[in-house]
Amino acid sequence: MILNVLKLNAQNYYQAYSIHCNGHSHPWSESVFADCFTDNYQAYALQQDNTVVGLYVALFVLDEATLMDIGVDASYRGRGLSRVLMSHFLAQCKASNIHYVWLEVRASNFAAIGLYEAFGFEQIERRKGYYKTQEGQEDALMMRLALGATE
Protein backbone atom coordinates (compact mmCIF):
# COMPACT_ATOMS: atom_id res chain seq x y z
CA MET A 1 0.00 0.00 0.00
CA ILE A 2 1.52 3.30 -1.14
CA LEU A 3 0.12 6.47 0.46
CA ASN A 4 0.69 9.88 -1.06
CA VAL A 5 -0.59 13.31 -0.01
CA LEU A 6 -1.38 15.53 -2.99
CA LYS A 7 -2.09 19.28 -2.95
CA LEU A 8 -5.46 19.90 -4.55
CA ASN A 9 -5.94 22.44 -7.32
CA ALA A 10 -8.44 23.33 -10.04
CA GLN A 11 -7.22 20.48 -12.24
CA ASN A 12 -7.21 17.54 -9.77
CA TYR A 13 -9.97 18.08 -7.21
CA TYR A 14 -12.81 16.03 -8.77
CA GLN A 15 -12.28 12.76 -6.89
CA ALA A 16 -11.82 14.62 -3.60
CA TYR A 17 -14.99 16.60 -4.23
CA SER A 18 -16.87 13.35 -4.78
CA ILE A 19 -15.68 12.09 -1.38
CA HIS A 20 -16.78 15.39 0.17
CA CYS A 21 -20.25 15.07 -1.37
CA ASN A 22 -20.68 11.45 -0.30
CA GLY A 23 -19.61 12.26 3.24
CA HIS A 24 -22.12 15.05 3.91
CA SER A 25 -25.88 15.25 3.89
CA HIS A 26 -25.58 18.91 2.80
CA PRO A 27 -22.28 19.18 0.87
CA TRP A 28 -20.78 22.36 -0.49
CA SER A 29 -21.49 23.24 -4.08
CA GLU A 30 -18.71 22.46 -6.52
CA SER A 31 -17.97 26.17 -6.92
CA VAL A 32 -17.59 26.62 -3.15
CA PHE A 33 -15.27 23.61 -3.02
CA ALA A 34 -13.22 24.96 -5.94
CA ASP A 35 -12.90 28.33 -4.15
CA CYS A 36 -10.81 26.53 -1.53
CA PHE A 37 -7.72 26.71 -3.76
CA THR A 38 -7.00 30.38 -3.02
CA ASP A 39 -4.07 31.69 -1.01
CA ASN A 40 -5.40 31.29 2.55
CA TYR A 41 -6.60 27.71 2.07
CA GLN A 42 -4.76 24.41 2.27
CA ALA A 43 -6.51 21.58 0.44
CA TYR A 44 -5.01 18.11 0.16
CA ALA A 45 -6.07 14.66 -1.01
CA LEU A 46 -4.79 11.36 0.30
CA GLN A 47 -4.05 8.81 -2.39
CA GLN A 48 -3.65 5.10 -1.82
CA ASP A 49 -2.12 3.32 -4.81
CA ASN A 50 -3.08 6.30 -7.07
CA THR A 51 -6.72 6.32 -5.90
CA VAL A 52 -7.99 9.34 -3.95
CA VAL A 53 -9.30 7.97 -0.66
CA GLY A 54 -9.52 11.09 1.53
CA LEU A 55 -9.18 14.85 1.76
CA TYR A 56 -8.96 17.83 4.02
CA VAL A 57 -9.58 21.53 3.50
CA ALA A 58 -8.38 24.18 5.96
CA LEU A 59 -8.38 27.96 6.15
CA PHE A 60 -5.23 29.68 7.50
CA VAL A 61 -5.53 33.25 8.80
CA LEU A 62 -2.69 34.86 10.74
CA ASP A 63 -1.81 32.42 13.55
CA GLU A 64 -5.04 30.42 13.42
CA ALA A 65 -6.30 27.63 11.19
CA THR A 66 -9.80 26.26 10.79
CA LEU A 67 -10.27 22.70 9.60
CA MET A 68 -13.18 23.16 7.20
CA ASP A 69 -13.53 19.52 6.11
CA ILE A 70 -11.78 16.20 6.50
CA GLY A 71 -13.04 12.91 5.21
CA VAL A 72 -12.23 9.43 4.01
CA ASP A 73 -14.13 7.51 1.34
CA ALA A 74 -16.61 5.17 3.03
CA SER A 75 -15.00 2.04 1.55
CA TYR A 76 -11.62 2.98 3.08
CA ARG A 77 -12.74 3.94 6.59
CA GLY A 78 -11.45 2.09 9.64
CA ARG A 79 -7.89 1.86 8.31
CA GLY A 80 -6.37 4.84 10.13
CA LEU A 81 -6.36 7.05 7.05
CA SER A 82 -8.04 9.95 8.84
CA ARG A 83 -5.08 9.91 11.26
CA VAL A 84 -2.72 10.24 8.29
CA LEU A 85 -4.72 13.22 7.02
CA MET A 86 -4.87 14.84 10.46
CA SER A 87 -1.14 14.35 11.01
CA HIS A 88 -0.39 15.99 7.66
CA PHE A 89 -2.74 18.88 8.43
CA LEU A 90 -1.19 19.52 11.85
CA ALA A 91 2.31 19.35 10.34
CA GLN A 92 1.22 22.06 7.88
CA CYS A 93 -0.10 24.10 10.82
CA LYS A 94 3.18 23.82 12.71
CA ALA A 95 5.19 24.72 9.60
CA SER A 96 2.98 27.81 9.20
CA ASN A 97 3.45 28.83 12.86
CA ILE A 98 -0.24 28.32 13.65
CA HIS A 99 -1.06 28.74 17.35
CA TYR A 100 -4.70 27.66 17.39
CA VAL A 101 -6.61 25.16 15.29
CA TRP A 102 -10.40 25.32 15.23
CA LEU A 103 -13.06 23.00 13.90
CA GLU A 104 -16.73 22.19 14.26
CA VAL A 105 -18.26 18.75 14.17
CA ARG A 106 -21.73 17.29 14.34
CA ALA A 107 -22.49 16.21 17.90
CA SER A 108 -23.49 12.75 16.61
CA ASN A 109 -20.21 12.16 14.73
CA PHE A 110 -18.55 10.10 17.46
CA ALA A 111 -15.81 8.73 15.18
CA ALA A 112 -14.66 12.24 14.23
CA ILE A 113 -14.91 13.51 17.80
CA GLY A 114 -12.76 10.57 18.94
CA LEU A 115 -10.17 11.39 16.26
CA TYR A 116 -10.04 15.04 17.27
CA GLU A 117 -9.77 14.24 20.96
CA ALA A 118 -6.96 11.76 20.23
CA PHE A 119 -5.02 14.67 18.69
CA GLY A 120 -5.68 16.89 21.71
CA PHE A 121 -8.67 18.96 20.60
CA GLU A 122 -10.97 20.18 23.37
CA GLN A 123 -14.61 21.14 23.16
CA ILE A 124 -14.99 24.91 23.57
CA GLU A 125 -18.66 25.45 22.78
CA ARG A 126 -21.88 23.73 21.68
CA ARG A 127 -23.99 25.43 19.02
CA LYS A 128 -27.61 24.33 19.28
CA GLY A 129 -29.36 23.35 16.05
CA TYR A 130 -26.42 24.41 13.87
CA TYR A 131 -26.53 21.65 11.24
CA LYS A 132 -29.47 20.69 9.04
CA THR A 133 -30.45 17.02 9.08
CA GLN A 134 -33.12 14.94 7.35
CA GLU A 135 -35.16 15.13 10.58
CA GLY A 136 -34.51 18.78 11.43
CA GLN A 137 -31.38 20.14 13.07
CA GLU A 138 -28.39 18.94 15.05
CA ASP A 139 -25.92 20.58 17.42
CA ALA A 140 -22.35 21.42 16.44
CA LEU A 141 -19.41 21.08 18.79
CA MET A 142 -16.73 23.75 18.44
CA MET A 143 -13.32 22.31 19.23
CA ARG A 144 -9.88 23.88 19.55
CA LEU A 145 -6.29 22.71 19.69
CA ALA A 146 -3.55 24.96 21.05
CA LEU A 147 -0.23 24.44 19.27
CA GLY A 148 2.43 26.01 21.43
CA ALA A 149 0.33 29.05 22.22
CA THR A 150 0.10 30.56 25.66
CA GLU A 151 -3.16 32.02 26.86
From TrEMBL:
Functional description taken from the UniProt entry: Acetylates the N-terminal alanine of ribosomal protein bS18.
Signal peptide region: none
Species assigned in the record: Paraglaciecola mesophila
NCBIfam families (UniProt xref): rimI
EC number(s) from the headed UniProt entry: 2.3.1.266
Reaction(s) catalysed (UniProt annotation): N-terminal L-alanyl-[ribosomal protein bS18] + acetyl-CoA = N-terminal N(alpha)-acetyl-L-alanyl-[ribosomal protein bS18] + CoA + H(+)
Family matches, as SUPFAM superfamilies: Acyl-CoA N-acyltransferases (Nat) (SSF55729)
Domain N-acetyltransferase: start-end pairs: 3-148
Broad enzyme group: transferase
Record keywords, A-Z: Acyltransferase, Cytoplasm, Transferase
Name this protein carries in UniProt: [Ribosomal protein bS18]-alanine N-acetyltransferase
Annotated GO CC locations: cytoplasm
Superkingdom as given in the UniProt entry: Bacteria
Chief subcellular location: cytoplasm
